[in-house]
Structures are given as structure tokens and as C-alpha cells.
Amino acid sequence: MAAKVAAHQDIIVKKSCFGLVKKAFYTPTDSSILALQNDYSAENGDRIKQIINAPEGQLEAAVKAFGGIDHAPMGPFRVEVCLSADHQFAAVQAFGYSDFEYKPLADVRFFTGNEADIIGRLLAPAL
User: Fold this and answer.
1) Residue 79: beta bridge partners?
2) How distant, in Å, are the alpha carbons of 26, 94, 100, 116, 119 from that of 7?
3) What is the chain's percent helix, strand, coil content, to nearest 5?
4) How far is CA 2 from CA 13, 86, 99, in A?
5) Of 39, 62, 42, nearest to 52 (Cα)?
6) Average pLDDT of the residues of the chain
7) How many CA atoms lie within 13 A of 13 on its CB side?
8) How far apart are CA 102 and CA 89, in angstroms?
């Protein structure tokens, strides 16, 4: 996922400390990108898949339909999220556990503006 986020047209990766440290920024707002991953139960994983696959403009309705979604300490479903500090950019990818590893269930999906904020509040409320 990191390579796809870094290749996004609105993301710039800056190196520091002799190239040992890399930080990504969302260029329209110059906001740093934070990354996290959480595991979910199968039931909540199915809900998240439906939410992140909602058609453009229907994301908020999909989130309201399912209410809150809690992550689990360990589960068969994993979501990786890259979120700008100002919640104006989000990249999300879902993974399912199979054959002793997490495998991507779909390609990375990008959100901007209000939809990124909705995704951030749902999947990364502490950020």
C-alpha cells in the first residue's frame, strides 16, 4: 500500500536524517500522513468492505447505516489506513486472513475532503 500512496499525485515523500527517515505529506494542505492498521471481526470486516466500496457521495449514508465499528485485538480482517493529519486525505486498503497471511481484498481506495474526514472518524478516531 505504501508504494501506491507514495505514487499518488497529491502526495510527496520527504527524506531527512541522511535519507534514513521518510515522511509523506498531502500537498494541497501540506499535512503529514499518518498510517495505522487495525484488525476486525468478520462481521465488522464485512461492514467496512461495504462502507469503503460505497459509491461516491454515498459514504456518509453507508457509515450511518452501520453505526460504530470497533476494532478487535486480532481478527480475520485487517484495514490499513493512511490519513492526513487534517483529515482531508485518506487511503484505505482491506485485507483478509488466508493461508497464514493477510492478503489484499481490493486495491487501495483514495478519499479526499469530507469523505476522507468520514473515513478518518470511522477507522482512526484517535488521530
Assistant:
1) 38, 94
2) 12, 19, 29, 18, 21
3) 30, 40, 35
4) 11, 19, 23
5) 62
6) 92
7) 12
8) 24
pTM: 0.89
Query: How many beta carbons lie within 10 A of that of residue 81, not counting itself?
Result: 22
Q: What is the DSSP letter of 81?
A: E
Q: What is the longest distance spanned by two Cα atoms in the chain?
A: 48
Report yes or no: 83 and 127 within 8 Å, Cβ to Cβ: yes
β-pair partners for 78: 39, 95
Place of cell 484505505: 92
Pick from 62, 75, 64, 82: nearest CA to 124: 82
| Sign of the alpha-carbon torsion through 103, 107, 108, 113 | negative
Helix axes 42-52, 113-123, angle to 10 degrees: 170
Answer whether 93's CB lies under 8 Å from 61's CB: no
What pLDDT digit, counting tens, does each position of 36-73 carry? 999 999 999 999 999 999 998 899 999 998 877 888 98
What average pLDDT score do residues 80-95 get? 96
Instruction: Return the SS3 of 93.
Output: strand
